[in-house]
Amino acid sequence: MSPLLSIDEPRPARSPARPQWRAFTEMGFRPLYLAGCGWALASVLAWVYAPGLLRGDLPGVFWHAHEMLWGFVATIAVGFLLTAGANWTGRNPLHGNPLAALCLVWAAARIGYLVPGRNAFLVAGAADALFFLWGAAALGRSVWLTRNRRNYGVPLLLAALAGAHAAYLSSAAAGDYLGLMRAFNAGLICMAVLTLLIARRVIPFFAQRAVQGLKIPPHTRSGHWQLAAGVAAVALLLAGQAPAASAALAASGLIALAQWLAWKPWAVRRVPLLWILYAGYLGLGIGLLVAAAQLAGLVLRTAWPAHVIGVAGFSVLILGMVTRTALGHLGRPLRTDRSMVTSYALMILAALLRLAALPPTQASVALLHASATAWALALALYLWRFFPLMIRPRADAPQGAVRVAAARPAGPAPRP
Questions:
Q1: Residue 77 backbone dihedrals phi, psi, to 5 degrees
Q2: Rounded to whole angstroms, how far apart are CA atoms 307 and 309?
Q3: What predicted TM-score, i.e. pTM, was given to this entire model?
Q4: Distinct helix (H) and strand (E) counts, the chain
Q5: What dihedral do alpha carbons 289, 290, 291, 296 form, nearest 10°?
Q6: Does 318 have pLDDT greater than 70?
């Protein structure tokens, strides 16, 4: 059974290669990691420092929430899954000009939400739906053709994200705030379920490869219960059953925290590529408990679950994943440098400052601005470090060839 991500320790490159279009569009992570992180940087700066630029039909906070979840987090997920799909199946789901076309569809959506007028809004919404459904179909085709049964459900989660996106925009257009929040929360939890599924596979796998002698139990049974609880929470949210959804979210969050403890976080404290992933998974688990408390009426402010899950969970975890997986698939040593560790520290600082800004105090605005600045610097460092690498062939690829690291497993396969 092939691993989710098989990343070989590379040999040093003999000489730097020139940028190549073929290399840039060889795998989904290359353009989509850059696009997602670049848009996350730009959109947060616009939201905090230049809200006057947001003149589309999706106003203010609704645009910000949509772009953070679907424009940033879900975009990175698509890039990751298109790349991981090559390892699951031995078939690259999307590459070359079709991948470039998918990215143009994504860009059309981002621009469309900023242009005034209902036509631009409709075009943007259709482009976003096409982006997610296209990604789901490409991944699903590879999974189906290779009969990769353990991953049959992953394309369906991407399709569910597209459905939640459509419900969100429909509610926004109709002025239905309750429907909009229901769709947003469903999309948020759907993304959390997908993230838990992937992270539970790869984090222990990465940790056992990096820390000599570290043994981590697979938690297969608890993972199945966690997945079932997450899917139930999404269904119950859409059905308007808040108390039952709260219980399902609490179960999923508690399982995540139990897994985190079983992964022996103290053993990875000296490995930045690992502790950043552990920090994000911890934030996600806590965020699910906060969401459960909010649905139960114990947390009154609706912004808390979104920001604990989204910033302390997704964003911290994403920065670690886009570093770790990119290094491996680019044929680079699996080591951090000063810029990478600095970006991790800045992202964690941004998360803490953003949470501190949630209570309405005199310091809230200053904390929000400080958080946005730290966020932008963290992502800018990532882009500065990785953009030159993403547009070039793998460091260990002869004559510019780009290898898909699926054919040669490197260690035991992570359990589902």
A1: -60, -40
A2: 5
A3: 0.90
A4: 15, 0
A5: 90
A6: yes
Which of helix, strand or coil describes residue 283? Answer: helix
The closest alpha carbon to 161, from 259, 264, 70, belongs to 70
Residue whose tokens read 């970006």: 343
| Residue that is written with structure tokens 């189906």 in the block | 144
Contacts of 289 (CB under 8 A, 6+ apart): 249, 250, 253, 254, 257
The whole-angstrom separation of Cα 156 and Cα 344 is 31
Instruction: Count CB atoms within 10 A of the CB of residue 304.
Output: 18
pLDDT tens column, 265-316: 999 999 999 999 999 999 999 999 999 999 998 876 778 999 999 999 999 9
Query: For 38-86, how does the pLDDT look when each residue is reduced to its tens digit (9 = 90+)?
Result: 999 999 999 999 998 899 999 889 999 999 999 999 999 999 999 999 9
Sequence-separated (6 or more) residues with CB below 8 Å from residue 73: 36, 191, 310, 314, 315, 318
Contact status, residue 378 vs residue 348, Cβ threshold 8 Å = no
Pure H helices in 50-176: 60-66, 74-89, 96-112, 118-145, 153-174
